[in-house]
């Protein structure tokens, strides 16, 4: 058989752990891909595991205990989409059972836990990828492409608004685990590891972080509903993130400024535009994401496990995003700027 035929025939069988909002979305996107398939669905809530297995069709096995799924020798890899505080233990157990692992963001709730997980993956000779998918969403990948092509020269400032409309308990935010810091890590872990990852991908590594956080509208949460973080990057650039679940007019947009021009994106409107110093404003056509970004990360995970192809997001990316969230909370509680190692 030709090598190219071998490549196209290989399919990664995956056991999904956690069949809630994100897990079922992964299962749906997997169905659109040739190179990866859902082989088992596991959830402590059997109804959810069954519903995900049935939606996928075919012969998807159902488990209610992670340990049982992990003893299934026909499943070489797992996708962990359980609440944040469970990631560390499930990932460590899966790696020890010899599985390659795709872990949803945030990778874990402390930098030390991330280090432990990366070390365990290396020790067991397994692969560990983290679902920092935002950088792959079409709007964000267009911005990253423009920056990488030098359209705005050297970027020196990034400003991001990730402000959701004030929510009553609806949609994913109705899950009881989301109201506690012990489960989520707080807004910066649950949501903004995405923005930290995106910032890093255009600005490089951070040198220092300062933050302020408070709860203005959500007495049912034991953590902030609004947070402002400033970052100084190692090569001198500046960053601001304002994140909220308390705004009334929501906004999910950003401005990246460089020596030769600026780029503005609006995720809500699916627009990217830039202007160079001497030029006109250019509207860049952006395809709707419509699941492309999740398919991209899943396909990359399969390509890494099956063929050794470099993954589009690494466990180090997941770790760095957690490091920024952790440092920002330390800054907010200690009321001082925190240096990033
Ligand atoms: N990449 C993204 O953009 C994105 C979007 C949403 C959620 N997420 C992440 O995905 C993860 C899940 O979020 P969600 O919105 O799907 O939550 P969810 O509450 O909808 O689903 C979590 C599921 O995990 C199950 N579960 C809990 N503990 C378990 C265990 N020990 N073993 C097996 N199943 C268990 C629950 O019963 C539930 O069905 C979180 O880490 C979240 O941050 C990522």
From TrEMBL:
SUPFAM superfamilies: Glyceraldehyde-3-phosphate dehydrogenase-like, C-terminal domain, NAD(P)-binding Rossmann-fold domains. Its EC number is 1.1.1.18. Gene3D superfamilies: Dihydrodipicolinate Reductase, domain 2, NAD(P)-binding Rossmann-like Domain. InterPro entries: Gfo/Idh/MocA-like_OxRdtase_N, Gfo/Idh/MocA_oxidrdct_glycsds, GFO_IDH_MocA-like_dom, NAD(P)-bd_dom_sf. GO terms for molecular function: inositol 2-dehydrogenase (NAD+) activity; nucleotide binding. Residues 140-263 form the GFO/IDH/MocA-like oxidoreductase domain. Residues 13-131 form the Gfo/Idh/MocA-like oxidoreductase N-terminal domain. Keywords: Oxidoreductase. This is GH109. The lineage of its organism: Bacteria, Bacillati, Chloroflexota, environmental samples.
């Amino acid at each position: 058989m030709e090598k190219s035929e071998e490549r196209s025939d290989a399919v990664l069988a995956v056991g999904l752990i956690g069949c809630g909002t994100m897990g079922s979305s992964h299962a749906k996107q997997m169905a659109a891909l040739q190179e990866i398939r859902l082989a088992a669905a596991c959830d402590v809530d059997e109804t959810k595991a069954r519903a995900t297995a049935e939606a996928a069709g075919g012969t998807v096995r159902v488990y209610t205990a992670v340990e049982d799924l992990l003893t299934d020798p026909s499943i070489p890899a797992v996708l962990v989409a359980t609440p944040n505080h469970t990631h560390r233990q499930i990932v460590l157990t899966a790696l020890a059972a010899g599985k390659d692992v795709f872990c949803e963001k945030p990778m874990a709730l402390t930098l030390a836990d991330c280090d432990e997980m990366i070390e365990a993956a290396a020790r067991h000779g397994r692969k560990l990828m983290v679902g920092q998918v935002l950088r792959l969403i079409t709007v964000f990948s267009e911005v990253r492409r423009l920056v990488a092509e030098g359209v705005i020269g050297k970027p020196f400032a990034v400003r991001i608004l990730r402000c959701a409309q004030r929510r009553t308990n609806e949609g994913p935010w109705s899950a009881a685990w989301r109201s506690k810091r012990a489960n989520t890590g707080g807004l910066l872990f649950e949501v903004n590891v995405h923005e930290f990852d995106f910032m890093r991908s255009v600005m490089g590594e951070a040198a220092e972080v300062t933050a302020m956080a408070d709860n203005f509208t959500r007495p049912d949460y034991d953590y902030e509903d609004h947070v402002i973080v400033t970052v100084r990057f190692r090569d001198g650039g500046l960053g601001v993130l304002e994140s909220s679940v308390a705004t009334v007019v929501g906004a999910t947009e950003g401005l990246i400024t460089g020596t030769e021009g600026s780029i503005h994106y609006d995720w809500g409107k699916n627009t990217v535009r830039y202007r160079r110093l001497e030029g006109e404003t250019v509207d860049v056509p952006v395809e709707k994401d419509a699941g492309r970004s999740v398919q991209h990360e899943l396909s990359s995970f399969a390509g890494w496990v099956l063929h050794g192809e470099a993954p589009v997001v690494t466990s180090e990316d997941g770790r760095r995003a957690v490091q920024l969230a952790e440092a920002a909370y330390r800054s907010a509680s200690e009321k001082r700027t925190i240096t990033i190692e």
